[in-house]
Amino acid sequence: MTLVQMQPRPASATLTHRPVVEVMDAAGPQVCDDMSVEVALSVMAAARTGRLVVCDQDGQCTGLVTRTELTAARDSSAYTDRVRLRDILGDHGAFTSPVTTAAEAEHAMRVLRLGVVPVVDEQGSALGVLALSR
C-alpha cells in the first residue's frame, strides 16, 4: 500500500478564480431546435434532467430550455403541437466561454438572472453547462 500525502489547496486557487471549464457540469442531453415541446419533455423525463441544451441543424448551441419553461409553454393558451424549441428559446442566447473565470461567469449570470448557461467553444459547440451555486 502506498500512502499519499495530501497538500491543502492554496487560497489563491479558490473555485472562483478557476476557469469555467474546470467547474462546469456535463452538457447532458442535446436536442435539435426543431424538436416539439412534447418530445422535449419526454426526453427530459427519460434522461431525468431538468434542462436540455438546444442546438441548430449544424450542431451550434442556440440556447438552453428548462422543464419549467417547457411546461409553461405547453400550458399556455397559445400552445399548439407546431410549437418548436426554437420558438420558445426567448432570451437564452447567453453563453459562457470555457476560459472565463467562474467568478466572472457567476457575476454575469446573477446580473442576467440566469440559473444556468451553456459553456460553448469557439465554434459554438456545447461543452457543458454552468449552474449557479445556491
Short summary:
The protein has 134 residues and is an alpha+beta fold.
Describe this structure in words.
Helix content is 29%, strand content 20%. Strand 3 and strand 4 form a beta hairpin. It is an alpha+beta fold and 134 residues long. The strands form 2 sheets. A 3-stranded antiparallel beta sheet has the order 1-6-5. A 3-stranded mixed beta sheet has the order 2-3-4. It is globular. Helix 2 packs antiparallel against helix 3. The N terminus is likely disordered. The chain has a single domain, classed as CBS-domain (Roll), CATH 3.10.580.
Q: Looking across the biggest beta sheet, what order are the strands in?
A: 1-6-5
Q: For the record, what CATH class applies?
A: Alpha Beta
Shape: globular
| Distance linking N and C termini | 40 Å
Roughly what is the average pLDDT, rounded to an integer?
Answer: 85
Supply the number of helical segments: 5
Element pattern in H and E: HEEHEEHHHEE
Number of domains: 1
Uncertain runs with pLDDT below 50, 5 residues or more? 1-13
Helix content: 25-40%
User: What is the third-level CATH name, the topology?
Assistant: CBS-domain
- The SS-based structural class is alpha+beta
Query: Strand percentage, roughly?
Result: 15-25%
Give the CATH H-level superfamily: CBS-domain
**Largest β-sheet summary:** 3 strands, antiparallel
**C-alpha Rg (nearest Å):** 17 Å
